[in-house]
Structure formats: C-alpha cells, structure tokens
Design a protein that fits this description.
mainly beta; Immunoglobulin-like; 2 domains; 8-stranded mixed β-sheet; 4-stranded antiparallel β-sheet; 2 helices; 19 strands; elongated
Length: 326
C-alpha cells in the first residue's frame, strides 16, 4: 500500500502584505476559495516557495499567508509533509502519518487550525526544528493546507549545513519503437544528498557510422535526494535500418555525471518481410540444386553391381601365361 498522495502546489502570486481585507473577485465554483503561499519578507517580494537553511539542532522560522477570497469564513488545517518524486518525476507529498523527515519538523505553534474571516488575509508563523542528528544536505518538504477536502501544498526547500554530494546513476536504458517514433526509456537515481536539475544528451553509433543523437537539454524534473524516476525521451534521429549502440549522458550542477548504454536493431519490417520470404525461397532452391548434384555424383562414383562385373569378365580375352617365349 503506497502511503503517498499528490497535492496541488500553490503558485498563485502573493497579495500585498498590508491588505488585510481582500477586495478582489470571488473565487469560481471550481476553485477552493482561498490561497496559501509564503508571506512576503521585509526585503523580498513574492516567493514561489520557502527556502530555509540551518545547522543541526537549529530552529528556523517563516510565515505562511492564507487568503480567503470568498464571503464565507474558512477553516483551514495546516501540517508539514515529506516530499518525494513520483515515478514520472512529479513533486508529491506524503500523508501526515508517513512524515519521518523534514515534514515532521514543522510546527504551527498553539494550533494547526486557522479560521479565516471572509475576504481576509491571515499570516501564520511556523517553525522548523532541525534535529541534532540530522544528516547534511537537502530535506525536501512542504506545508500543506487542507479545507473541505481540498489541499494546497507550498514547497519547503530545507538544507542542513555540512558536506554535500551531487551524484546520480543512469539505469535500465532501453529503446522502444522504431523510426521517428523511437523513444529511449531510462531510470535516473539520485545517489547524493542534494536535489539535482539534470541535463541529458544522447550519442549513438551504428554499423555504418555515426547516428544523429540529441544535444544536451535540461530535463523537466527536479530529482530529490534518494529518489528514483522513470523517464522517456524522443529519439528522432534513430536509424531506419541499422544496429545502433547508444550512450545516454546525464549531468547536473555540482559535478554529477553518469552514463547509461543500450543497443538495438532497427529493421523496416514492411520491407524486411517480402525480402525475407524471397531470400528464404532462394535459399530453398539453392539447397535443392545442391542435393541433386550430390546425388548424381554419388551414383556415378559408386561401384557396378555383381552381375555387371561377371559379364565383363566373360567378354574379356583370355591369355595363357606359360612362361614360354614366342
């Protein structure tokens, strides 16, 4: 049973910090009627996420802004959550019961339930207490707000000071499809302790020389520490008829670099089918001809039967060998 779920991420723009009474339009029927986002700091404007850094044992502080855009009071429940990558690389958070890392370090003071009056913006402080034994590196998390069955998550980029390692591996490389529809499937694994923004390039070589690959392009995924994602990439330069060996190279800031390899046959089966049948028929004809020649040679070289040998001896002239000179 998977203890995980996806939560809608808050990406709405930050409202003015001084506007305690929101005068904007009411939310639509398909909207939650409230927003959650990082509160603006004194020297910063809108923030798409929280970024916190500290040493093991430290207590970090920040503030969450909740804005009620409707004419009704809203009751929002807050919690911290561990973050992870789904199999396809998306960002997701785990349920409250599964919080074992940075999600369990988040606290909202006296109460995690906030009542927001109509058209009002509330700022909620929270703390992140880093345990003294926390390993260094990134600890991805989120602050999750829930109301009426709707959840909004705001990302928390938390880094614990200490040695960092950017490392990854490329595994399970395989080619799927042929021609213009060919795709390369592979698995990326973050073996380090920091989040990675990987870039990918593809090079290939066939029996007839170099095969067009792909230049280095950023991947649309942030690979979190310890996570494994399964991705596919188009390969428009795949050959039509060849046996190609390809190399998948993935790099990321911080010195991370890894390669994966695979090989595949590319055969246009629409042509190979009739061609193969023709070659098979030619091979069968050649084999039959060789068999007839072999049988002819065998009959010509085999010794004559006994009756033929007796007739040959009867018709041959007889010579008397007496030793008398003539």
């Amino acid at each position: 049973m998977r203890l995980a779920r996806r939560v809608r991420l808050a990406v709405v723009p930050l409202l003015a910090a001084a506007a305690l009474a929101y005068a904007g339009p009411a939310a639509g029927a398909d909207e939650p009627g409230w927003t959650a986002e990082p509160a603006a700091g004194r020297a910063a404007g809108a923030r798409p996420y929280f970024y916190l850094a500290g040493t093991p044992g430290s207590v970090l502080e920040d503030r969450l802004a909740l804005t009620n855009t409707t004419d009704q009071e809203r009751t929002v429940t807050l919690r911290g959550a561990d973050a992870y990558n789904t199999a396809d690389g998306a960002f997701a958070v785990r349920p409250a019961a599964a919080a074992a890392d940075a999600g369990s370090w988040v606290a909202f003071g006296g109460s995690a339930t906030v009542r927001i009056p109509p058209r009002t913006r509330a700022v909620v402080p929270f703390t992140v207490t880093v345990p003294p034994s926390s390993p260094p590196g990134d600890h991805p998390a989120a602050v999750v707000a829930t109301e009426g069955g709707r959840e909004v998550g705001v990302r928390v980029h938390l880094r614990v000071s200490g040695p960092t390692l950017a490392a990854l591996t490329v595994e399970d490389v395989a080619v799927r499809g042929k021609g213009a529809a060919a795709r390369v499937a592979y698995t990326l694994v973050n073996r380090g302790n920091v989040a990675l923004a990987p870039e990918l390039s593809l090079t290939a070589r066939g029996r007839f020389g170099e095969v067009p690959g792909r230049g280095s392009d950023p991947l649309p995924v942030e690979l979190l520490p310890g996570q494994r994602v399964e991705l596919t990439e188009p390969w428009p330069g795949a050959p039509v008829f060849d046996h190609a060996s390809l190399t998948l190279t993935v790099t990321a800031p911080g010195g991370a670099r890894a390669e994966g390899h695979a090989s595949a046959w590319f055969v246009p089966w629409g042509i190979a089918g009739p061609t193969g049948i023709g070659l098979l028929g030619l091979g069968a004809t050649t084999a039959a001809a060789l068999l007839l020649v072999r049988r002819h040679r065998t009959r010509r070289d085999e010794p004559p039967p006994a009756a033929a040998q007796a007739r040959a001896r009867a018709s041959a002239p007889e010579h008397e060998l007496t030793g008398v000179p003539r």
